[in-house]
Specification:
- By secondary structure, this protein is an alpha+beta fold.
- It folds into 2 domains: about 65-230 and about 240-300, no CATH class; about 305-440, Sandwich (Immunoglobulin-like), CATH 2.60.40.
- Helices cover about 15% and strands about 40% of the residues.
- It has 5 helices and 25 strands.
- It has helices at about 1-10, 30-60, 90-100, 225, 435-454; strands at about 65-70, 110, 115-120, 120-140, 140-150, 160-170, 185-190, 210-220, 245-255, 265, 270, 275-280, 280-285, 290-300, 305, 310-315, 325-335, 350-355, 355-365, 370, 375-380, 385-395, 400-405, 415-425, 425-430.
- The longest helix is centred in the first third of the chain and has 30 residues, at about 30-60.
- The radius of gyration is 27 Å and the shape is elongated.
Length: about 450
């Protein structure tokens, strides 16, 4: 037992004192040099332990999370990575490499053609992809992921596509290609060597930190929701109409820092088809440190005709949840194929997405009123937000939209902010720098720095 404690002490820098039966021992005066040496050993031990603890805490705090929204592409492999085209790299690996390089185009509004899924016989459905990337995760820790997709068909209430929670030990593993749908792939790897063109690069490398990538997709079928089993040979069935669908993606992450078997244990353990371990739960042995990494919530919408142009301004007012508010002013031009807008008989949706937060408000058809000047106005409460909105048709197929919201939950929203507007089968988005948000970010950083100094 004493030998084991000594070995632990050597690994952790903690001083171990041998226990002996209590008895009177002859007094021996400790020489000054020996006392200084012992004190120095004690200080070094505590210093090493403190450094190791601080490094673990900092590595967790440094972890970052971001999300992308994209589609599969077209049958010629442009963008590269359609899984149903011979010789084309798997979609999820191409998208992941592009996201890490900062070249993946992320949108919130798509047309049916954008989201088309191509099989051996041509297009057979629509699919929207989401990708979460968590970087700088400490090796040896346990990552908790809760991931969900919700969808709303035109004129129907929102439904749950899937809502799952799993745990992933952050360790090296041999990556194995899998025939299962790429839209639900997960993998993690050493950042300097992965992921590579086949997905095997970096997964088996034991590095100080790891990058975790997790995909989700909403496809034009419902079999994938049960078994995630759609493949190129057995493509999913097509949804009759992909237009007007809204898909919301949510994901949140926590890191359970420590060593497996000493600080935490994995429950419901299994091996994924791609080779990594995962579980359905964990047990904290009392010494694991649990830290949140962050959460994301974004919405993708499919429209028939995208706006030709859309520009705007956003102002966010921070405060207590009951005091937070926003003002949005948008100017747009309808697309060449648009048959116009009719707010009296069409749904209107406004969404703000940025950082790790988002807010979406859908005004139902028939809720707008038209005044004598031709303005369409709405005033009411949508999803808890006290909302005032005005739509004004202008010349040359242009329009203006103004919206003011009070008691809005702006948690996590940060610059740059994606503003998405859909009116019936018309829609588009624009990227803006919200006023008031920069001051809020600077104040948050000052508060964080002050807290850390304390």
């Amino acid at each position: 037992m004493i030998r084991q404690l000594r070995q632990i002490a050597l690994r952790t820098g903690v001083l171990v004192v041998r226990c002996v039966p209590l008895r009177m021992a002859p007094h021996r005066k400790v020489p000054r040099s020996e006392a200084l040496h012992r004190g120095r050993q004690l200080l070094i031990g505590f210093f090493v332990w403190g450094v190791l603890f601080a490094m673990g805490a900092l590595s967790v705090r440094a972890a970052s999370l971001h999300v992308s929204q994209f589609t599969l592409g077209v049958p010629d492999g442009s963008p590269e990575g359609n899984p149903f085209v011979a010789g084309s790299a798997p979609t999820y690996l191409h998208a992941l490499r592009a996201a890490l390089a900062g070249t993946l185009v992320s949108n919130t509004v798509f047309t049916p053609a954008n989201g088309a899924v191509w099989g051996p016989g041509g297009p057979f459905g629509g699919e929207l992809y989401f990708l979460s990337i968590v970087e700088r995760l400490p090796r040896g820790a346990l990552l908790e992921e809760r991931k969900a997709v919700f969808f709303q068909l035109p004129g129907q209430s929102e439904q749950t596509f899937f809502d799952v929670q799993f745990y992933f030990p952050l360790e090296a593993y041999p990556h194995t290609p899998s025939p299962f749908a790429d839209g639900f792939a997960r993998l993690h790897f050493a950042p300097r060597t992965g992921p590579g063109p086949t997905g095997t690069e970096g997964s088996a490398v034991d590095s100080a930190t790891r990058t975790f990538a997790s995909f989700a997709s909403f496809a034009g079928d419902f079999s994938d929701a049960q078994g995630f089993s759609g493949t190129a040979n057995t493509p999913p069935l097509e949804i009759t109409s992909f237009t007007g669908i809204q898909v919301r993606y949510e994901a949140s992450y926590r890191v359970i820092a420590g060593t497996e078997g000493r600080d935490w244990t994995l429950l419901g353990q299994a091996i994924a088809p791609r080779g990594y371990r995962f579980g359905t739960g964990f047990t904290n042995l009392g010494t694991a440190t649990i830290r949140p990494v962050g959460s994301v919530r974004v919405t993708s919408t499919v429209v028939t005709v995208p706006f030709a142009t859309l520009t705007g301004q956003v102002e966010l007012e921070r405060g207590a949840p009951t005091e937070e508010a926003f003002e949005v002013t948008l100017h747009g031009t309808l697309g060449a194929d648009s048959d116009g807008i009719d707010p009296l008989h069409e749904e209107v949706t406004l969404a703000l997405t940025g950082g790790t937060g988002s807010i979406t408000m859908t005004i139902p058809a028939g809720a707008f009123q038209q005044d004598k000047q031709g303005h369409f106005t709405f005033e009411g409460t949508i999803h808890g937000v006290e909302l005032q909105a005005t739509l004004t048709p202008l010349e040359s197929h242009q329009f203006e939209c103004k919206a003011e919201g009070k008691q809005a939950d702006l948690t996590g929203i940060a610059n740059p902010v994606f503003v998405t507007l859909t009116i019936g089968d018309n829609g588009g988005n624009t990227l803006v720098t919200a006023k008031g948000e920069q001051d809020h970010d600077e104040q948050q950083q000052k508060d964080t720095d002050h807290h850390e100094r304390d």
